Amino acid sequence: MVHNAGYDIIQQEKVDTSVLVGSGYPWIGSGSEPQWDKITSKAYGHTVSDHGSNAKASRMQDRANSQEAQGQWYNDEDIIEAENATPKHPGYYIIDFHRPLGRVFVKGGSADNPIENVTRAFIQRRDDGTLNTTYPVTDDFRLTIN
User: Which residue spans within the chain are E strands per DSSP?
Assistant: First the structure.
């Protein structure tokens, strides 16, 4: 576990430490650089549309029932904080922020009764530094990246 001010990196996998990407580093992706400080930026697209605070609970529960647990952020600005807290290397991470970030809808659960006040987030950083996805997870969530 790596401890930083206010959060801990619980687990990390497939991290390419030879590459530095994300906010604060030169843009290596295609097109113009994302506006890292704006939640509407291309850096956060999927996360906001599928896991953001405005996602419908019924849709989140339907996805959890047909796929796997689905995390939802309470505050979309925390997605930007997650990007800032995540190491600046492509890879997969679980970070504990030690404060409530969101809720998790589980298979067989109810849209009216998700697991509330989870403090951890899963983050997948792409090779260009943008986030493929990030969402709140329960304490028992583990990376199983092959």
Answer: 2-4, 7-13, 70-73, 91-96, 102-105, 115-118, 120-125, 131-137
**CA–CA distance, 146 with 135 (Å, rounded to integer):** 20
Q: Count of H helices and E strands in the chain?
A: 3, 8
Predicted structure pTM score: 0.93
- At 8, phi and psi to the nearest 5? -130, 135
104 within 8 A of 114, measured Cβ to Cβ: yes
Write out the two tokens for 51: 């896991």
| Alpha carbon distance 33, 15 (integer Å) | 22
Other residues' Cβ atoms within 10 Å of the Cβ of residue 105: 25
129 in helix, strand or coil?
A: coil
Q: Does 119 have pLDDT greater than 70? A: yes
